[in-house]
């Protein structure tokens, strides 16, 4: 390969090395978040987004075309996108791959066009782009790429080096664009994450030795260690089944979710990767025929491989891999015998010896169909019960401590038997992923509509659904619910994980912080005092209701004491106390 071009094999390597470098730096990037809260998650969100794509890229064989690699990068990052930073990163990748996928080799001119399209795509995805963020760093890299292309630079190594160098210069200037960054003494965390992706990709181009294996832990949130899992694990499902579906037509998002849900209902250790032409499947089950029969709905089968794990004494191998690391699965799928036959829909499939099967699982009766349903996001058993009591059909566990992905939201919507599903993100860092889910749902054209009411906090979400009126047109309800968001003032109390200065407020590690809609409202050494002071800065004469949701680490008697103190201070307001059970945040308060 000429040093002046990048072929498909090199692009795959560069993408994986970029992803691995981001993964290695994610905790450091988390610490760059302006607010010193224990759930700073920019690095985590960006890593899980890019690792979702890396997982798909790593499943391709070494002869994959540029278009196949670009499809894996684009679709994988799109489905795995989490948080604002993750969604923006997915849009950058989507715009970049849209340009390069039609070329067998990439030169400087094509790369410059791809950078341009990446930035344009990402800016379009953000309602109100803010400079001093990952967008600014991406734009700077694009501008440098265009400048080098206009200067007729041909050497890709020189091009990459100069683009990264300028991106770092732009990143260093982000504190001058956002005063909150300068005061906190940090650069933009999302921008830093993007630079790490670019630097890692360049290392791959230069041939530096990097471990390219993609672990499931890098993609799955809150993964247990393999040692913990294997102590508990037993082989419930005796057959390891792998095959490729030669698709009659591309699977839409609904079909992918349905197929994956079906596989989860009959087994475990599921891996399913699809592009426009093929779908690779790996599943452990007690009846491989069920997976095969379902797959025949979507096309012809090839490269079939069924192993009796008990008979072949493979318990140890699969115990060590728990749900199957991608490196192991990739090796087995790519190494499967090429002489396996292709089966057509309707063919009888010889399955060989069977072990005793579990009884077929009963079909769970679906909820009655209705015109409008609800999906919401929150963390905490108490908050989840509050939403269910208000009529929410499906609660996604997540929020500040774990932003659900676009795929998580689509999966939740699919479980709601309604024509229109209203999604309440309840977190400003989830709104973009929810909007992306709505767009993807429109593209599927499956008749179900997703509408996002952009709630930024749990109290806003509660107020929004309270304002829903049955038998009123959806558009009118959404308008009323959205308008109601502005009537809610929210405050949250947590602790600081590092020393910093925000809005001229000195914060020490271990301090308790009261964070309002517009920033830090109170800092101190006592939870109750910080909460009380925070509320005082939230209040105004026209407010009538104060709601207190106490977290999983707060004693009920302490919460009741705080309620009584607040009731005494604000006798003209109704004060309600409810168990939220939320992690990280001792109290969530609303005043409306």
List the helices and strands and how they pair.
Elements: E1 6-7, H1 8-30, H2 42-58, H3 66-80, H4 83-100, E2 105-106, H5 108-125, H6 134-150, H7 156-177, H8 179-184, H9 189-206, H10 226-232, E3 239-247, H11 253-266, E4 267-274, E5 278-285, H12 288-295, E6 299-308, H13 315-321, H14 326-334, E7 370-378, H15 381-389, E8 394-397, H16 406-414, E9 418-424, H17 431-444, E10 449-452, H18 458-466, H19 474-484, E11 489-495, E12 500-502, E13 505-507, E14 512-516, E15 519-524, H20 527-538, E16 545-550, H21 556-569, E17 574-579, E18 587-591
Question: Brief description of this entry?
Answer:
This protein is α+β, with helices and mostly antiparallel strands. The protein has helices spanning 8-30, 42-58, 66-80, 83-100, 108-125, 134-150, 156-177, 179-184, 189-206, 226-232, 253-266, 288-295, 315-321, 326-334, 381-389, 406-414, 431-444, 458-466, 474-484, 527-538, 556-569; strands spanning 6-7, 105-106, 239-247, 267-274, 278-285, 299-308, 370-378, 394-397, 418-424, 449-452, 489-495, 500-502, 505-507, 512-516, 519-524, 545-550, 574-579, 587-591.
What does this structure look like?
- By secondary structure, the chain is α+β, with helices and mostly antiparallel strands.
- It has 4 domains: 201 residues, DhaL domain (Serine Threonine Protein Phosphatase 5, Tetratricopeptide repeat, Alpha Horseshoe); 109 residues, 2-Layer Sandwich (Alpha-Beta Plaits); 118 residues, Phosphotransferase system, mannose-type IIA component (Rossmann fold, 3-Layer(aba) Sandwich), CATH 3.40.50.510; 103 residues, Hypothetical Protein Tm841, Chain: A,domain 3, CATH 3.30.1180.
- It contains 21 helices and 18 strands.
